[in-house]
Amino acid sequence: MPNKLTQNFYCRHDVNLIARELLGKIIYTNIGGELTAGKIIETEAYSYSEKACHAYSHRHTTRTSIMFGAGGHAYVYLCYGIHELFNIVTNHQDTPEAVLIRAVEPVEGWEHMRKRRGTSDLMLTSGPGKLTQALGIDRNLNGINLWGDKIWLEDNGNQLKAEDVVQTTRIGVDYAKEDALLPWRYYVKGNPFVSKK
DNA sequence: TAGAGGATTGAT
DNA sequence: TCAATCCTCTAC
After folding, report:
1. Residue with nearest Cα to nucleotide C3 C1'
2. What stretches in chain A show pLDDT beneath 50?
3. pLDDT for position A1
4. Which nucleotides of B are covered by protein (CB under 7 A)?
5. What gap in Å lies between CA A36 and CA A178, rounded to an integer?
6. Which nucleotide is the nearest neighbour of A59, by CA and C1'?
7. The whole model's pTM is what?
């Protein structure tokens, strides 16, 4: 039986553990009456403790305020003026951490995804900006909880083997200097939807 | 209030 | 390799 993740899953302290455990989970969106779903196959962890994070050193701004709330909410922001990126806030209130969803594998609603992406390319969800477009996620959903009926996650019960998970450095965070070397990116080995550098 | 730059993507 | 594109943050 599908098992919707509850807020407890997201409110734990170890953002890297959550980023690792999110691999294999299914994201569902029901937006505009269109149901779509994708299996998470690539994530990155971000924490107030390192410079790549928008909320580094508890930097509290209008944009980062959602990260200061409790875990289990969506943090959606505009990147490069073009792409909406989807993060899952983790940990407890006033401890700003989040997991960036970088890639999913389509599970349901393939036609809706293709229509939203406006392409016949099969690689509809192989990057953080692509998957939000395919799943219909945009900044209107910033702050929404992840246990409602618009966006939610399910555990399909399949366990990912340790040897199928790759841990490596994050992409596009050179501005973070030495913190760019942290191995806080996780992906499913051999999955064709893993984003490329 | 101006200026710089970005957790990306796709075309050249 | 490079442009697109606009919002956020910082400094003045």
Report:
1. A80
2. none
3. 62
4. 5-10
5. 38
6. C9
7. 0.97
Q: Alpha-carbon torsion A116, A120, A124, A130, what sign?
A: negative
Cα–Cα distance between A80 and A107 in angstroms, integer?
28
pLDDT of the residue at A154: 98
- Report how far apart the first and last C-alpha atoms of chain A are (Å, whole number): 36
Is the CB of A68 less than 7 A from some atom of nucleic acid strand C? no
Residue A28 has, within 13 A of its CA and on its CB side, a CA count of 17
